[in-house]
Design a protein that fits this description.
9 helices; globular; 226 residues
Amino acid sequence: MSDAETPLPHPLLEDDALDQLDDYLDDERSGPDALDLIGAHGFLVALAVAPGDVPATAWIAELFQGTPQFADDNERETVLGLLERLKSNAITCLEGGGLPELPFEPTLDGLAPEETPIGDWCAGFMEGVFLDEPAWFEGDEETAATLLLPFMALSGLFADEPDMHELAGDTARLEGLVAQLPELVLDLYLHYRVPPDTAKPKPRPKRPAGRGGKSGAKGASKKPKR
């Protein structure tokens, strides 16, 4: 796809909504092991492209790693509503062939991925995969591993995997993967959510809305300890 044909990334929430989520997830009431905004964004995008639907009770418990505390029912409904809306908006965007806007600048600037918001986002994405890992690899494990390789490599969660060592040291290739992340998300959506006999949605241009940003071998996706 040429630059002229590539649609502009589409924001999944307005800036003020992202700020509201950021404030809550950064608060101790969300829980000591809860994902931050960047990780939660990646986690919910993974759920949007996942092969099957995960019950809200399951993904909420995983995102917060416990039971979050809320000031009142209104705050609870607001926070959980924003999380659900982010996931729903990701589905709507991808269904139309759009590319999701990611909450970080798409460059590593010479840093290791795990030292950047890019690594945090991809780690959150992989947490979404781990939530129902068998479903992601069922039927065609090799293709799934290939499609997930960029997210695995950039997450930093698999640094100890022998098959990751060469890629981890290839700075130019990692930078290329970062630039392609929105399109790689769409590729995953088309693989898992669009039946083979269904016409693939054609990407359509999107209006810009700015917000900058927190192994290929089979079976390599085994969940590392948190």
